[in-house]
Amino acid sequence: MNRKKLLCIAMCVMMCLAVFTACGSGSDKSGSGTASSAASESSDSSAGSDQSAAPTAADNSLKEFSQDELLTGKHHVKMDIKDHGTVTLELDADQAPITVTNFIDLAKKGFYNGLTFHRIIPGQFVQGGDPNGDGTGSAGYNIKGEFKANGVNNTLSHTRGAISLARTVDNNGGCCQFFIMDADYTDFDGQYACFGYVTDGMDVIDDICKNAKVQDQNGTVAKADQPVISSVTVVD
Question: Which pTM value belongs to this model?
Answer without folding.
Answer: 0.81
